[in-house]
Amino acid sequence: MSQSVVKNAKADASPPGQAAPAGRRLQGHPWLTLLTVAVGVMMVALDGTIVAIANPVIQTDLKASPADIQWVTSGYLLALAVFLITAGKIGDRFGHKSTFLVGAVGFAATSAAIGFAGNIQTVIAFRVLQGLFGALLQPAALGLLRGAFPVEKLNMAIGIWAGVIGASTAAGPIVGGLLVEHVSWQSVFFINIPVGLAALALGIWVLKDVRAENAAKSFDIPGILLLSAAMFMLVWGIIKAPSWGWGDTSTLLFLGGAVLSLVAFALWQRVAREPLIPLSLFRSVPLSAGTLLMILMAFSFFGAIFFVTFYLQNVHGMSPVDAGVHLLPMTGMMIVGAPAAGAAIGRVGPRIPIVVGMVLTSVAMYGMSTLDAGSGSGVMSLWFVLMGLGISPVLVGATEVIVGNAPLELSGVAGGLQQAAMQVGGSLGTAVLGALMAAKVTDVLPGNWAAAGLPPVDGAQAQGLAQAAQLGIAPPPAPGTPQQVVDAMATAVHDSFVSGMSLAFAVAAVVAFVAALLGLLARRGSTDTGPAVHI
To answer: Signal peptide position in this chain (predicted)?
Structure first.
């Protein structure tokens, strides 16, 4: 790369013979930059799982309907998924430091507003805003890392960043369970306030903005509208498909509309003066493969792991906190494995670690498909450990492949693309594997029910029984029901749930293996970053 890096003279120059002030020397420090962005994204990752524990209490306290409480989660995820790429473009245009700081302050402020909300409508409104501010944080964090670290150390930085995200995501059920049980559901949101203030203080002190001289000077408004519409229809269609039905007219309209909007977006990007996502970006085979790899990884991992919490809580009867503790082997491996994967990728490139990681993930998914209602903690921990070890190099490697193969002026867009791919893959995996599991449970439940010697049920009662069994929940027994009958009902339901879960994990194992093959196209980032301005 022959082009030099241009620095803002006013910001960096010191009088001759005089050292720069200590604060200025720390500004832009790579490892302090990593610490700062890790604090910020920790809020977003933690919030993705911690709120799920609080939802039942929120529903009771605010007298919310099931549809309302679904919007507490769906509204956040939709706003996050729809705005991620546009948020990355905002960072590329106005600087990733400013974007990150606005995201951190906005996320903390909306968290406070949710905690003080007196009705479910206010909670939903601020959850949507929270998702928008969360979308500003994540691509900006990757853009700041891309600008702060040299190429040879970027993998290690992304590895630690990924470890923080993995740890925060997995810690959500434990932290959420403790807060809801011993404090209140509002504390689940209030916890973001000190974290957000810490991110703000560190960001002002440590972060140095990095942007390319040839970054876009205007926004592609038609492109933003078309892509936002496509992402909304795609993610909403996926979220609602299990309840509407995959062949339902509404589902087909949303998914078909998403496809049409994406086609219109691609056509517009070919003629736009300053496109939101230049299609030339996808001429990079590694970047395109990395994006698809991220979708498949999220499909198999988040789609399958969704059922584990129900398996632990409803089949094994664990509390949310106990279930979170049982997931610690996977969490621990992600915390340790992500930085180690970053170091390995720095030495041998991303291809081998990604392929090995997805093969390990595929084996772990297959192992999870062999669990039954009586499986012990030891065998579960074995597969959790293997899954954590397998996911770590993929999360780090695919991120580096996407962000590292994009030009510096599109690092924010690339960061948004990486996060959007993960959101779409996770939503798709949860919906598709959930549909397969539901169909399997519905199919085997009548046979298991009859084999247990229980009287047949039909009509609305049978439908309610099937829906409860899809979550591993045995029906409440009538007063005076013999314990032997209660146990038989629980066995029939749990065995049916495990059959569905086994199918979901088996499909996830196949998807993970396909992703391993795709990993053969991965290649270390090599795009010329071009001239940059440090502010």
So the answer is: none
